[in-house]
Amino acid sequence: MAEGKQKKGLEGTGLDLPKNRYGNLKSASTDQNLKHILTDIKTSKTPAVINYGASWCGVCSQILPSFCKLSNNFPKLSFIYADIDECPETTLHIRYTPTFHFYRDGERVDEMFGAGEERLHDRLWLHS
């Protein structure tokens, strides 16, 4: 693909991901985009979860379809996928992929490292 035409975010993973029914799944494909999303989470105080992953991470590729599927089970939660290579400035603090950050009332209240659909489901239920 030509430079600048390469797909990013969820589309750039190359995975066959479940469709999102509620419009509560977003993808941050640039630092500016992720900064805007984080500001929106803080001001709207909407409960949210951010999945920090990477296209080269095998574990990330395994959990991402479940993350997308779970977005349909929790319509009041905002789901965001951020690739650390596409948002390098705003993801400097991420040391492990995948990392999940959970937000409530505009503040980060929890963090989960690694994958596991059941673990993720339980955390989403707790924070929804």
UniProtKB/TrEMBL annotation:
Pfam families: Thioredoxin (PF00085). Residues 39-121 form the Thioredoxin domain. CDD domains: TRX_family. It comes from the Eukaryota. PANTHER family: THIOREDOXIN-LIKE 3-3. This is Thioredoxin domain-containing protein. It comes from Cannabis sativa (Hemp).
